[in-house]
Amino acid sequence: MHRRFDIATRGPGLTEFTRDVAAWVDGASAEEALLTLFVRHTSCSLLIQENADPEVRSDLAAFFHRLVPPSDDPAMSYLTHTYEGPDDMPGHIKSALLPSSLQIPVIDGRMVLGTWQGIYLFEHRSAPHRREVIGLLR
């Protein structure tokens, strides 16, 4: 069984979509399965991360911005792929460092996530985007 999740982002940062995935898994009647999520883009990533304190999300976004600043930052002058804007190549670098897919066990019909874990799309581009994540339940 599969499903497409369309996720609207507001620019850089983490967008949680745990509830959408959980509702789909709950309705699938799969007692034991493996859920795979895959993002079909090259300048965003998927993460399982804490969903209790929003400072975790803002700190992660700030860290990756410092780690890989926009291409108009002097530290990034070595980049050659710059014609799609100063956030494009840094977005590709961040997505190379972070996962494009996740696997989550499903037991007794529910995702086996920890108490404070949530599923996030991590947008690396500056402008809002519509991102597509494919879920496969087997």
UniProtKB/TrEMBL annotation:
Pfam (any one): YjbQ
Q: Which PROSITE patterns match?
A: UPF0047 (PS01314)
| PANTHER family (alphabetical) | UNCHARACTERIZED PROTEIN YJBQ-RELATED, UPF0047 PROTEIN C4A8.02C
Report the family membership: Belongs to the UPF0047 family.
Designated name of the protein: Secondary thiamine-phosphate synthase enzyme YjbQ
Q: What is the originating organism of this protein?
A: Limimaricola litoreus
